[in-house]
């Protein structure tokens, strides 16, 4: 049904065919059909020609060739990348295209009337595809690679997979089809061409021989054909360790020498079995398989160095045994069952330990000696003996001494040769019942060798302390106490400690044993009770009774003491609670007339003396020096009085505010004429006005005048003081502007006109007028 058919045209695009559809304009059956159908246009990327690249041609049946139709191109890249000849419809590409940047462009074409710019055909859309060329090499995005594979791995063990990408179009040609090959790393490893998987090419590679390989892998596009682009990357393959090597001692036997004085838990020797594996595969456990002196030594593993450390477990004695033979085994801690065929993973060696003799200090036959002595033992009494010997073969003689730090008061001595301990001072069990002594045993031939022994001396008790009251008793006796009433229970204490315990006997001492007031009852339980024999005790008769109590212990020989018990008579209430105790004070019933007169005379005499003292102080002349608190220079007196304003002319003498040059009263505070020299000489009859002096002299003369006044002032304080004068000089050349000064100046100005100014200026006229002015301040 179309008037025209599709025509195949060839453009100048590198010889490649370009398809496009011509405009179809149907006139059949007076029916307006679509005038054009579009296919895709193709253009090669990376065109390097000097002229624009021809893309294709557009044509419409409406275009009769008379120039009335104009072709318009819009869309992606229109006018910037693609241009169209508006007359012929030829499309050209003006820039180099990169498919990897943009693979296709969508454009719209339309035929319009050249004059009216109205469309003569509907707008249609077409696509310009950028045709790929092989301009990008494969790239390993994740390279370079690090990989690891266990040593001794079998042939074909996978190591790592590499991958390269090509930015070219994978749907067009072989530009993006990549194959892999190994450039460097053979014959140890291989790579699968299509997958990029790297595998081991040799079996049983040994890490201890070589632990790292660097491979160079190439990826080439165009399926590896000639002309293809390629990229490379490196793969660092590290062989990881496995436990395929057993530990081995470098020697069959080892010899070490130690001193017999080596302390316990000291290191005797260090041995090591070498294992060329690393990490946990080289961890070794050591053990003593056999040897002399069971339990004498022990061996452990130093985790940092993997050495076998031999420790001393028991004390060495050269005189008993001077050498030890040990058999040591070293075994891998972590054995891999895959490599048991390479075993056994253990090794043995022999160790000989030789003991050297040293000069040892003396040794006591008994480290701790216990002795007893009575506290009444006489000086020089032997209480025991200590014994020590030299363990060395020389068997040197021993001398003994006491460490005086353990016997500061020197209660004991020790015989230097025999070791017999004896008393040196009287002992007192009550002061110290146990003495802990340190005994030194010193070799005669080598005094630096000193052995230590200990002796515990227990002091046995004897009855050498008399019993005493257990406390200071305060016994109170009520005046209303009845006969036979118990007033106190007493007990006793004794510093001694008899084997069978204490037993005390009580009685009243002989002087009062038959007294009529009190009696004592022994309770047979180491206590006694004090009872009254009568009633009717009175404080006024006797306030305190003192009872001597005899206390006897059960020692052999028995000891006794007399203790005094004080009984105070008290006034008590009905419940027996003491209200007041002690002697009763006697008070006089009255005073005689003579005593009262004497007391009254004393009081009157004291009053007269007080009045005389007060009168004398009042008549005392005030001192010239003012008291500190009354110094007027340190007090501020405030008056809250307010002046009367402008009309108050009598509250204050205005003349005192006049200028210094006018107001000068030579008689004020000048009853004595000072001889103080002045800086400028002038007749004494009349002092010049300050205005006639230079400015720098005015202040000096003013200060000198005030200094003279202070010197002759009888009321001035006789000490240095600060005098403040509010004087600012003689003023400016323009004279003073003060109305107060104008009253006493010699000015020729006439102020009579103020009277003509009305009632408001009457006061000023009275102050400054020639006639009334003088009378105001007279």
TrEMBL record:
GO terms (molecular function) for this protein are: beta-catenin binding; cadherin binding; calcium ion binding
Q: Which GO terms describe its cellular component?
A: adherens junction; catenin complex
- Where is this chain primarily localised? other
Which segments constitute the Cadherin domain?
60-140, 141-249, 250-364, 365-469, 469-579
Q: Which GO terms describe its biological process?
A: adherens junction organization; calcium-dependent cell-cell adhesion via plasma membrane cell adhesion molecules; cell migration; cell morphogenesis; cell-cell adhesion mediated by cadherin; cell-cell junction assembly; homophilic cell adhesion via plasma membrane adhesion molecules; morphogenesis of an epithelium
Q: What membrane topology is given?
A: Single-pass type I membrane protein
Q: What is this protein called?
A: Cadherin 7
Instruction: Look up and give the organism this protein is from.
Output: Oryzias sinensis
């Amino acid at each position: 049904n179309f008037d025209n058919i599709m025509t195949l045209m060839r453009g100048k695009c590198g010889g490649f065919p370009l398809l496009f559809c011509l405009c179809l304009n149907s006139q059949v059956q007076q029916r307006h059909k679509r005038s054009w159908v579009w296919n895709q246009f193709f253009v090669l990327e990376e065109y390097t020609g000097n002229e624009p690249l021809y893309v294709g041609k557009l044509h419409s049946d409406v275009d009769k060739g008379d120039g009335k139709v104009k072709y318009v191109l819009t869309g992606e890249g229109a006018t910037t990348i693609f241009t169209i000849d508006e007359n012929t419809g030829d499309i050209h590409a003006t820039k180099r295209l990169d498919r990897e940047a943009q693979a296709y462009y969508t454009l719209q074409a339309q035929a319009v009337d050249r004059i009216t710019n109205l469309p003569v055909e509907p707008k249609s859309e077409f696509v310009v595809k950028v045709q790929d060329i092989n301009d990008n090499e494969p790239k390993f995005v994740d390279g370079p690679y690090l990989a690891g594979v266990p040593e001794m791995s079998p042939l074909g063990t996978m190591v790592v997979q590499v991958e390269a990408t090509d930015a070219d179009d994978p749907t067009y040609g072989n530009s993006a089809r990549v194959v892999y090959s190994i450039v460097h790393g053979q014959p140890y490893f291989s790579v699968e061409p299509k997958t990029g998987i790297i595998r081991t090419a040799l079996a049983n590679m040994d890490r201890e021989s070589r632990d790292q390989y660097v491979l160079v892998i190439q990826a080439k596009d165009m399926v590896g054909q000639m002309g293809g682009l390629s990229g490379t990357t490196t793969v660092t393959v590290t062989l990881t360790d496995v436990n395929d090597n057993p530990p081995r001692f470098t020697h069959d036997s080892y010899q070490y020498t130690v001193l017999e004085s080596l302390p316990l838990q000291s290191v005797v020797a260090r041995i090591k079995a070498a294992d060329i594996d690393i990490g946990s595969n080289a961890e070794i456990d050591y053990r003593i398989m056999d040897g002399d002196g069971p339990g004498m030594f022990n061996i452990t593993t130093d985790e940092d160095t993997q050495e076998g450390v031999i420790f001393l477990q028991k004390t060495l004695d050269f005189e008993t045994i001077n050498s030890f033979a040990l058999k040591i085994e070293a075994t891998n801690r972590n054995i891999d069952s895959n490599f048991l065929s390479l075993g056994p993973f253990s090794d043995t060696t022999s160790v000989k330990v030789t003991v050297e003799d040293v000069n040892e200090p003396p040794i006591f036959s008994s480290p701790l000696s216990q002795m007893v002595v009575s506290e009444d033992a006489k000086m020089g009494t032997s209480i025991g003996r200590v014994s020590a010997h030299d363990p060395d073969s020389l068997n040197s003689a021993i001398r003994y001494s006491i460490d005086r730090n353990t016997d500061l008061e020197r209660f004991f001595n020790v015989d230097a040769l025999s070791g017999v301990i004896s008393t040196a001072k009287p002992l007192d069990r009550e002061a110290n019942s146990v003495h802990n002594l340190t005994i030194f045993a010193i070799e005669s031939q080598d005094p630096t060798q000193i052995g230590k022994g200990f002796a515990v001396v227990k002091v046995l008790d004897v009855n050498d302390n008399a019993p005493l009251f257990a406390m200071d008793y305060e016994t109170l006796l009520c005046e209303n106490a009845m006969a036979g009433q118990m007033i106190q229970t007493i007990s006793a204490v004794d510093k001694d400690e008899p084997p069978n315990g204490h037993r005390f006997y009580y009685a009243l001492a002989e002087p009062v044993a038959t007294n009529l007031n009190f009696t004592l009852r022994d309770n047979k339980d180491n206590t006694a009770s004090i009872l009254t024999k009568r009633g009717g005790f009175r404080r006024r008769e006797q306030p305190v009774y003192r009872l001597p109590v005899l206390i006897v212990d059960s020692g052999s020989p028995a000891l006794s003491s007399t203790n005094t018990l004080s009984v105070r008579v008290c006034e008590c209430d009905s419940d027996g609670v003491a209200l007041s105790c002690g002697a009763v004070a006697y008070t006089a019933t009255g005073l005689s007339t003579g005593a009262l007169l004497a007391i009254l005379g004393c009081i009157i005499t004291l009053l007269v003396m007080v009045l005389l003292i007060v009168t004398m102080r009042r008549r005392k002349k005030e001192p010239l020096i003012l008291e500190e608190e009354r110094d007027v220079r340190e007090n501020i007196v405030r008056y809250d009085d307010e002046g009367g304003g402008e009309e108050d002319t009598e509250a204050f003498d205005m003349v005192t505010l006049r200028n210094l040059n006018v107001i000068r009263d030579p008689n004020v505070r000048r009853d004595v004429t000072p001889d103080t020299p002045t800086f400028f000489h002038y007749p004494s009859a009349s002092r010049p006005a300050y205005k006639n002096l230079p400015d720098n002299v005015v202040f000096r003369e003013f200060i000198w005048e005030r200094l003279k006044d202070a010197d002759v002032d009888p009321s001035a304080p006789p000490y240095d003081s600060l005098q403040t004068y509010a004087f600012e000089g003689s003023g400016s050349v323009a004279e003073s502007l003060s109305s107060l000064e104008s009253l006493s100046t010699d000015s020729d100005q006439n102020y009579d006109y103020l009277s003509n100014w009305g009632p408001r200026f009457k006061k000023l006229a009275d102050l400054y007028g020639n006639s009334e002015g003088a009378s105001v301040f007279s």
